[in-house]
Amino acid sequence: xxxxxxxxxxxxxxxxxxxxxxxxxxxxxxxxxxxxxxxxxxxxxxxxxxxxxxxxxxxxxxxxxxxxxxxxxxxxxxxxxxxxxxxxxxxxxxxxxxxxxxxxxxxxxxxxxxxxxxxxxxxxxxxxxxxxxxxxxxxxxxxxxxxxxxxxxxxxxxxxxxxxxxxxxxxxxxxxxxxxxxxxxxxxxxxxxxxxxxxxxxxxxxxxxxxxxxxxxxxxxxxxxxxxxxxxxxxxxxxxxxxxxxxxxxxxxxxxxxxxxxxxxxxxxxxxxxxxxxxxxxxxxxxxxxxxxxxxxxxxxxxxxxxxxxxxxxxxxxxxxxxxxxxxxxxxxxxxxxxxxxxxxxxxxxxxxxxxxxxxxxxxxxxxxxxxx
Length: 373
Fold this sequence. Notes:
Shape: rod-shaped
Number of strands: 7
């Protein structure tokens, strides 16, 4: 037979046996005191003198009997479930059990009432007890069915909570898997571009190619150190970015300059791991590489109204006069995956804009909630 622990669900403290026993006793004690007060005031209204301890003794004893019966009723509820496929049999069993318990508890209550409350000098008549039990058994039966309803309601609530928890976990796992897939897609994209640059330099400048390989090793080391993190500080992200930019400076030599305008208070702000490098890579490959003029990249960050804003600007040709989604797709996998990652991590609480400059160039702006670990 299960204990009263089967009734309690939820927080860890409810899993402690002694807490459940105390709660059960407290509930039935309150019921006993409620009925004792009703009995006491019913006698008082009629002008009959009744010592307070008599109704309290009667109803508390009766309540404790029901407290002892509660674990059995819980077991009956779980053993003979009222559900499709066994509805008729379970209802019959519960009806008979409720009838028996209702009559038995009624007889016990009447016996205690006779000896504790009644001043009758007549001997207790067993036939009167049985007749009274047959005619007025509904109170005990009602308690039986009330406990059944509570048990099934708690079980239904528990199942709903478990379904919600499983759905939430599956959704979180799906989002994590999608983010990981996007990051794995970004790494080969970066590596292929870098290896192409190294391959080109091997035929022109062997020392520069060797230096680029060393910088690539530094970048991969920093990436592996934070491979399990979804978010890093802006300071860490800029360290990644500096390794990448050193690789690109070797390839472009003196044709590329980088300017950073980073507010000191934003350095500890959290942002997605490896989120800036694809944007800068896009600026170099689509903005600076096709041109013969010297390239310039500006990276700025600031805190604005509780949000972190990071803007990366280049002096390339900018976007053609197309819709944003078409332009974003034509700018490559880097920007598309960047926005997908932002959406997975922040839902709709982010900003990702591509804006042409007044004359030339493109500014990519990321805005996310400002938070520090």
